[in-house]
Structure formats: structure tokens, C-alpha cells
């Protein structure tokens, strides 16, 4: 028995995705680059998946590059842009490391966020105006730790006005379940998604490249994906991702209010029962599934241990940062004091979440926090 409140880290794979995957691994196992009937069938399955990705992101099937997940899509967006055009890369301070690291490695600029975690548009304008040339500006759809949603339309307005030659990349990995990405990222040239964040398997993702701008190639050695990403495609993962997208988009309208109600009850009751608990960000501008809180006087790792003893699965910041010695770069960028940031907790809900999950957390949190505070 486990109460799973870590959907931002990864999601349970949907049955339709498992079914599609098994089919692609059995009857449909052909190599999509081949010429015979079985190969053509595998290629057709990829084309169907391309249609589903394009539809969800508001693009065209020919603009979809399949990747191994969100990290590769983000890397391709940044490094590919830098290889194909002049200028620097720019991103917000709260991006996932899959964006932040390639930007920083290339000597790019990082734009601060406000205390609610939203990109500072005036600072963005200043950075763009000061740069001689800008190749790419990357701002995420929703943050993986806090759930804070970024105003991509407003970001695009600034970029088009001040650095019109730059590509706009949006890491929409956390957005598929909760945002209409076709609308939210309508002004982005490049959009990253990752299958395992919305009920698909791990190891599949995509980068939508609107109007197919020139983009450097990171994976050389094959003509797959029209020469934009060499390597035999992960057909089972990709068709399962497409099945998960269709299911996610179809139920988004009903899941959003349902999950919002669960999340709001969770946060409100924690705030009411634990003195000194702080909710990060402005709830109205966050995805509906994330409860992100900080507790003073405790350390996340110890709290997670007590939660796990009660069969509650959660994380501190992002799962990639769990166990790290430094507090989250996202909370630091929002101005949280280091000690408070050390006591952060992310409870993330999803399509399988129920009242029982919320009840399980509420039963353990007040006592666990009190125990840890007594000890310290
Ligand atoms: N971008 C964001 C916002 C994420 O949350 C993650 C995963 O946590 C990634 C990128 C990386 O995606 P993947 O795990 O598919 O490499």
C-alpha cells in the first residue's frame, strides 16, 4: 500500500499506454526506417504518434522530433539553437537543470524571477537589450518544484520586440496534464515534452520545432527524424506516449477541477494545522496539482523519511535534487532563506490521486513536523 504524491517526478503508466507499448513490441516490432511491410507499419505508428503530439502542442506533424525524453529535448533546443544561429542563450533562473546547464555552459544569461517565482519581464528586457545577439530564450511552462506557471505570451512579446531573431523555447514537461499547451505555448518556436510526466513510459519525449527553424543536430549517424535526430526511434515508447497524450488531453477538463480541489484541501489543512508552514508562490498562478510548502526548523530529508514510514511517497524539491546538499536553486531564486528552503516539501497530485491520498498526508504531517522540531 502506498500513497503516491510524487506525480511531478513521474506518473503511473496508463493502461492504454501499456497496451500500445506491448503491441509495438510484439506484432509491430519492425524498424521504422526499413522498406518492407512490417517496417512501413512501424513507421505508420510513428506517424500516428506524431499527429497526436502535434495536435496537443498546436503544431504540425512534420515539426515533431522524437527524443529520449525531456532532458534531450531541452538540450537539443538550447544547444541546437546555439549551433544554428549567432548569439547567446538566455533562460529564467528557475529552469530545470536540463535547460540551465547547457545555457550556463555556453556562457549564457540567467534572468531572475520575482518572489512568487514568475520571470521578471523587465529584467528579461534588460538582458536582451544588453546582449549583442540572442540565439534562444528559454522559459518553462510550469515549474517542476513549485508549479508556478510562466506567462509565455508575455515573454514572447518582449523577445519579439527586443530580440526578434531569437528562438523561443518552452520546456512544457510539467504542463501536459494541467495546461492547454497549444494555447499556452502558442508563441513558442520550440516546445519540449516528456512522456513519463503524463502517464506514458520513461525514455520517450519530443521537441516541437514550429516552422522547422534550422537547428543543430546532437545525435549524428542516421537520417531518422528527417536528419534532425539520428538513431532508431523508440517506437514502443513513442506510441505509448501518444496514447497517454490522447487520454490526458481528453480528461484534462474534468481532472483539473478535481485535482485542484484535492490540492487546495491538502494545502489549506496543512497551513491550518502546522504553525509556521509557508506555501510557496501564488496559488492562483500555479498548476493545480502541486502543493509546495516550507517548514521552518526541520530538514526535508527527515520529514520525507517519516512520510515514507507512513507509506506516503513525496519529495523535497525536484526528484533530481532530492538528497542534494544544496537547497533548491528555484527557492533560492525566489529569495527563500537557506534554512527555510532546507525544510521544503513537494506533494504532487495526478490523475490517480484520491481523497485517501490527501487524508494519509494530513494524518502524518502535523505530528511528524512537531516531532522533528522537538528534536532539533
Ligand atoms: N524539464 C522539467 C520541467 C522536468 O520536470 C523534467 C523532469 O523532471 C525534465 C525537464 C527532464 O525530463 P526527463 O525526465 O524526461 O529527462
Which features would summarize this protein structure in a list?
12 strands; 376 residues; globular; Aspartate Aminotransferase, domain 1; binds pyridoxal-5'-phosphate; seven-stranded mixed β-sheet
In terms of topology, how is this protein built?
Blueprint: E1 3-4, H1 15-25, H2 37-57, E2 64-67, H3 70-84, E3 88-92, H4 97-105, E4 109-111, H5 121-130, E5 134-138, H6 152-162, E6 167-171, H7 181-184, E7 190-194, E8 205-209, H8 235-273, E9 277-279, E10 290-295, H9 300-309, E11 312-313, H10 329-333, H11 338-341, E12 344-348, H12 355-375
Parallel strand pairs: 1-11, 3-4, 3-5, 5-6, 6-7
Antiparallel strand pairs: 2-8, 7-8, 9-10, 10-12
Helix pairs in contact: 1-8, 2-8, 3-4, 5-6, 8-12, 9-12
The residue fraction in helices comes out at 40-55%
The biggest sheet, with number of strands, parallel, antiparallel or mixed sense and barrel status, is: 7 strands, mixed
Give Rg in angstroms. 21 Å
- The SSE order reads EHHEHEHEHEHEHEEHEEHEHHEH
- What does the overall shape look like? globular
Question: How many H/I helices?
Answer: 12
What is the mean pLDDT?
96
By CATH, the architecture of the largest domain is named 3-Layer(aba) Sandwich
- Give a count of the beta strands, DSSP E runs of length 2 or more: 12
Approximately what portion of the residues adopt beta-strand conformation? 5-15%
In the CATH scheme, the class of the largest domain would be: Alpha Beta
- Total tally of structural domains: 2
User: Gap between N and C termini, in Å?
Assistant: 31 Å
Strand order of the largest sheet: 2-8-7-6-5-3-4
Poorly predicted ranges = none
Amino acid at each position: 500500500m502506498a500513497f503516491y504524491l510524487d506525480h511531478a517526478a513521474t506518473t503511473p503508466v496508463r493502461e492504454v499506454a501499456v497496451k500500445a507499448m506491448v503491441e509495438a513490441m510484439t506484432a509491430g516490432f519492425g524498424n521504422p526506417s526499413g522498406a518492407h511491410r512490417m517496417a512501413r507499419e512501424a513507421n505508420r505508428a510513428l506517424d500516428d504518434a506524431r499527429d497526436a503530439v502535434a495536435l496537443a502542442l498546436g503544431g504540425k506533424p512534420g515539426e515533431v522530433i522524437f527524443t529520449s525524453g525531456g532532458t534531450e529535448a531541452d538540450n537539443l533546443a538550447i544547444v541546437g539553437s546555439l549551433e544554428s544561429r549567432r548569439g547567446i542563450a538566455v533562460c529564467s533562473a528557475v529552469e530545470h537543470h536540463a535547460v540551465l546547464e547547457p545555457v550556463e555552459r555556453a556562457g549564457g544569461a540567467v534572468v531572475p524571477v520575482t518572489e512568487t517565482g514568475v520571470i521578471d519581464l523587465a529584467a528579461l528586457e534588460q538582458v536582451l537589450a544588453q546582449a549583442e545577439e540572442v540565439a534562444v530564450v528559454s522559459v518553462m511552462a510550469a515549474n517542476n518544484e513549485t508549479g508556478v506557471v510562466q506567462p509565455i505570451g508575455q515573454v514572447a512579446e518582449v523577445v519579439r520586440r527586443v530580440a526578434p531573431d531569437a528562438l523561443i523555447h518552452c520546456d512544457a514537461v510539467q504542463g501536459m496534464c494541467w495546461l492547454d499547451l497549444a494555447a499556452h505555448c502558442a508563441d513558442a518556436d520550440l516546445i519540449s515534452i516528456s512522456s513519463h510526466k503524463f502517464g506514458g513510459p520513461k525514455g520517450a519525449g519530443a521537441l516541437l520545432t514550429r516552422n522547422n527553424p534550422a537547428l543543430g543536430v546532437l545525435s549524428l549517424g542516421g537520417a531518422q527524424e528527417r536528419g534532425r535526430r539520428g538513431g532508431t526511434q523508440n517506437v514502443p515508447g513513442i506510441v505509448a506516449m501518444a496514447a497517454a497524450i490522447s487520454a490526458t488531453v481528453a480528461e484534462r477538463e474534468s481532472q483539473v477541477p478535481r485535482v485542484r480541489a484535492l490540492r487546495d484541501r491538502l494545502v489549506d489543512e496543512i497551513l491550518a494545522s502546522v504553525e509556521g508552514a509557508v506555501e510557496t508562490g501564488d496559488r492562483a498562478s500555479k498548476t493545480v496539482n502541486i502543493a509546495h510548502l516550507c517548514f521552518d526548523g526541520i530538514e526535508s530529508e527527515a520529514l520525507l523519511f517519516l512520510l515514507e514510514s507512513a507509506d506516503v511517497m513525496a519529495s523535497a524539491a525536484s526528484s533530481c535534487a532530492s538528497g542534494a546538499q544544496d537547497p533548491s536553486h528555484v527557492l533560492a531564486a525566489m529569495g527563500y532563506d537557506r534554512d527555510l528552503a532546507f525544510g521544503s516539501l513537494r506533494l504532487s497530485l495526478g490523475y490517480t490521486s484520491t481523497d485517501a491520498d490527501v487524508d494519509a498526508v494530513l494524518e502524518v504531517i502535523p505530528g511528524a513536523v512537531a516531532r522533528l522540531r522537538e528534536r532539533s
